[in-house]
Design a protein that fits this description.
Blueprint (H helix, E strand, L loop, with lengths): L8 H10 L10 H19 L9 E3 L2 E3 L4 H4 L21 H14 L4 H10 L3
Helix pairs in contact: 1-2, 2-4, 2-5
C-alpha cells in the first residue's frame, strides 16, 4: 500500500478541529486521536492506502499518535480551542477530505471515552 499524499497527522488534526460540526461533543485530546485512527482505518479499507504515514501506538485508552500527543496534552478532557502550527488543514482535499468527512459525520457525535470504548470492543 502506497500513500502518494503529502498530508500528515498534524494536517488531519487541524482539519478535524476546524470541521467538527457537533458542539455537544467537542473535540478533546482523546477524541481527536480516535477520530484520526478511524479515518486511517477507513482509508485503508475503502481507498486501499493509508491516509497518513504517521505511526500509531496502542495506549491504555486506545490508539494514539505519539507525535501529536504532546501538542494537545494540555487540553486533557477539555475542548481543543486552537489548531497546531505544525499542520495545514487546507492540504486536505479529494479522497482524503472525503474519508475525513465520512468519519466526522458518522463518529463525531461520540465523545472521546465512547470512542475509546469502541476501540477496545473491536477485534484488531
Amino acid at each position: 500500500m502506497k500513500n502518494n499524499n503529502s498530508i500528515n497527522v498534524f494536517d488531519v488534526a487541524n482539519y478535524i478541529i476546524t470541521n467538527n460540526p457537533t458542539e455537544n461533543t467537542p473535540i478533546t485530546h482523546m477524541k481527536l486521536h480516535k477520530l484520526i485512527y478511524y479515518a486511517q482505518v477507513y482509508h485503508l479499507i475503502f481507498k486501499d492506502s493509508p491516509l497518513i504515514l504517521n505511526k500509531l501506538q496502542a495506549w491504555m485508552h486506545g490508539p494514539v499518535f505519539s507525535e501529536l500527543f504532546p501538542l494537545f496534552k494540555k487540553y486533557e478532557y477539555h475542548p481543543i480551542t486552537k489548531i497546531t502550527r505544525k499542520g495545514n488543514h487546507s492540504k486536505i482535499q479529494g479522497i482524503y477530505k472525503e474519508s475525513l468527512d465520512i468519519i466526522i459525520r458518522n463518529l463525531g457525535k461520540y465523545n472521546g471515552q465512547q470512542l475509546s470504548d469502541k476501540t477496545h470492543s473491536e477485534e484488531p
